[in-house]
Amino acid sequence: MSRERIVTGKPVTEEEEAFSWSLRPKTLDEYIGQSAVVKKLAISLESAKKRGEPQEHMLLYGPPGLGKTTLAHIVSKEMNARLITASGPTLNRIADLMGILTNLDKGDVFFIDEIHRLPTNVEEFIYPAMEDFRVDFVVDKGPFSKVINVPLKRFTLIGASTRVGLLSAPLRDRFGISYHLDFYPPEDMFKIVVRSAEILGVNIDKEGGQIIAGCSRGTPRIANRLLRRSRDYALVKADSHITAEVAKKSLEMEGIDNRGLDDLDRKFLRIITDYYQGGPVGIEAIAATLAEETSTLEELVEPYLLKIGFLTRTKRGRSVTHETYKHLGLPFNGSVQESLFD
Ligand code: ADP
């Protein structure tokens, strides 16, 4: 079953993509948080520029919506080069890839999102392109087939992945640089909300900003989306000003609680508390009860619940924690709290 979730780090509509575009930091200075990655990347870019060489191939991994695509844009801008984007699952024809690679100029950035989903034959075709800047193209079949060796310009491949564990070792090894993006802490999320509000000309006070930041699951894309919903709510119901009260009401209307959990998260947790005495239980059993794909739960529900300590994962399965019971209000009467913000 696929449901539309407001708290997913993945882009939901094209219209939202266009909106995200206006909020996307254009330089490393504008990029908030992830300071360890930003520092290392700044040095690497500076060094590449001084050597007059393209940036090394880079792998960026972490949950969706944390700024991987944004970093790829920043790298291409810093290198004064073009950015060509593609996505792993749609890059399924060697001929398409060949077309892209042979058109790249020196220093161009080729960004492949969801690189763990590249078909194997395409992945293998990329190896010599990454390593030696050449591709071996086979023409004809059978006894008349021959390999044509095509040299490429020195480009930079940036791969992004939300499931780095699924990346093959040979592909992973071919990236000179690999950066992990983690969920943003509340103070960075607050800065991101304030920055976006300024760009959008939204009137928001400090408490309102803190509430939106706290409900955004450490994910900038979600913060921007929630800010937009609160702005709409404020426009219609509250004089265009986002106060704490307005932020809470608008989020509550969307079914989001004070930790940023939505209906799917709470159902996920309630299955473990109600049917499995708190766990451990296998992910397949939870997925079957929820009629969801295991991969959806692993990618879009579990990472944040693990991060905030509402879930633990062992070989025996998933378990909830004391915090989970407290959050769901279960010790009192065995049912969820009436107001999401109490
Ligand atoms: P990913 O590629 O990891 O899914 P994106 O790079 O598309 O994520 O980022 C989603 C949105 O979040 C962007 O449009 C941008 O507005 C915002 N964003 C991401 N990282 C930052 C950051 N460090 N500072 C400010 N805004 C950010």
Task: Explain what the structure shows.
The protein is an alpha/beta fold and 342 residues long. The chain has helices spanning 14-23, 35-51, 68-78, 94-102, 120-132, 169-173, 186-200, 206-214, 220-237, 244-253, 263-275, 283-290, 294-307, 322-328, 330-333; strands spanning 58-61, 83-87, 109-113, 134-139, 146-151, 156-161, 177-180, 203-204, 241-242, 311-314, 317-320. The strands form 4 sheets. It has a 5-stranded parallel beta sheet with strand order 2-3-6-1-7, covered by helices on one side. A two-stranded antiparallel sheet has the order 4-5. Strand 2, helix 4 and strand 3 (109-113) form a beta-alpha-beta unit. Helix 7 crosses helix 8 (206-214), helix 7 packs across helix 9 (220-237) and helix 8 runs parallel beside helix 10 (244-253). The longest helix is centred in the C-terminal third of the chain and has 18 residues, at 220-237. The structure holds adenosine-5'-diphosphate. Adenosine-5'-diphosphate (ADP) binds at residues 20, 23-25, 31-34, 64-70, 160, 192, 220-221, 224.
Helix content: 40-55%
- Count up the helices: 15
Structural class computed from helices and strand pairing? alpha/beta
Describe the global form: globular
Radius of gyration (Å): 23 Å
Which band does the percent of strand residues land in? 5-15%
Mean pLDDT: 92
Number of strands: 11
Query: In order across it, which strands form the biggest sheet?
Result: 2-3-6-1-7
Distance between the termini: 31 Å
Largest sheet: 5 strands, parallel
